[in-house]
Amino acid sequence: MPKFDVDESLVRKLAALLEQTGLTEIEFEAGEQRIRVTRGGTVVQAAAPVAPVAAAPAASDGPPAGAVISPMVGTAYASASPGADHFVKVGDRVQKGQTLLIIEAMKVMNPIPAPHAGTVKEILFDDGRPVEYGDILMVVA
Fold it and tell me: pTM for the whole thing?
């Protein structure tokens, strides 16, 4: 399979199009080169046709009420800097828009705000560890 340079600008445009349209997958082909972008941050490159990917079975219950879902792939941090106090801990009362954690993606620190006011019931990510798009990070109810 011949290698080709990935046009990062094109990948970003395709990813933005996924977000805007609600699609889960988009593919761009130019000659024998093909780029497929799917929600979850996976980019597949191939010179030959790509076999269909089986969809994961849907969870019957879905995320719990008050789930805070990761909007991106990156590294999750519970505090602004190493050794600093965590933004929140289980039992804390939070206001809508309050920073719950930070996800570092492509050297950019992205604060993740509380989607609504409530109490932190569970924290489901490990500080300094990778998270995927769609992961449940915590529950605020």
Answer: 0.56
